[in-house]
Amino acid sequence: MLRSALAVVVLAVMVAIAACTRSQPQGPNPFSVGVAFDNPPAYPGYQWTQHGQAVPAAELEASAGPSHCDWQSATILTIGWPLGTSAQNAGHSRTYIRDPKGAMGGTYQRRLVKDAQLPATAKATGYKLGSIEVYLSPADQDEAVYLVAPSGTERWPRADPMFGCM
Predict the structure, then answer these.
(1) So what's the pLDDT on residue 28?
(2) Secondary structure (3-state) at 144
(3) Which pTM does this prediction carry?
(4) Beta-bridge mates of residue 148
(5) Per-residue pLDDT tens for 74-111?
(6) What are the residue ranges spanned by the domains of the chain?
(7) What is each CA distance from 90 to 1, 58, 86, 151, in whole angstroms?
(8) Residue 40: CA atoms inside 13 Å, Cβ hemisphere, count?
(9) DSSP string, 93-143
């Protein structure tokens, strides 16, 4: 009887954890950059992986901007810097913005390239969301990040200096 009750509790906890985990993008081509981020998910966003292992949101997360600033149509991608570290404070992270609607002002919208050419010097970081991969190029990694999918490449501008809203 005790084992049965314990099994029920363990199963309930597993279902609750599964319900709270980060999701994957949905749609006809769920791993194109546009389908994944035209309507970005709320924080903490989708579950990314690196070398086949789940990545904590403190290391890499891409989610909608805050709704109280009316930025929810923009995607804010934060990566721990140097790569592989926790991004729990601004001094140890880099932030990149995908804002095709100009919700955060025109700067990020103008600097976004939705049909980008991946530079020959770009290297895969190992971070993946399905078939979407994050690349950095030594030539412009201080200015942008590349999200590469089978259906195309996007260049997202870096937010430097940091930004915020109240």
Answers:
(1) 38
(2) strand
(3) 0.80
(4) 133, 153
(5) 999 999 999 988 877 657 899 999 999 999 988 999 99
(6) 2-157
(7) 51, 11, 10, 32
(8) 25
(9) EEEEEE-TT-TT-HHHHHH-BTTPPPPTT-EEEEEEETTEEEEE-TTTTTT
Residue corresponding to tokens 């099994």: 7
Structure tokens at 83: 């790569």
Largest pairwise CA distance in the chain = 64
68: which 2 tokens?
Answer: 């109280």
What phi and psi values does residue 133 have, to the nearest 5 degrees? -125, 145
At position 66, the amino acid (one-letter code) is P
**Neighbouring residues of 119: CB distance < 8 A, sequence distance ≥ 6:** 137, 139, 140, 146
131, 125 Cβ separation under 8 angstroms: no
Question: Which candidate, 101, 88, 75, 86, places its Cα nearest to that of 159?
Answer: 75
One-letter identity of residue 103 = A
**Digit-coded pLDDT (tens) for 105-156:** 889 999 999 999 999 999 999 999 999 999 999 999 999 999 999 999 999 9
List, in order, residues 6 or more apart from 53 with CB less than 8 Å away: none
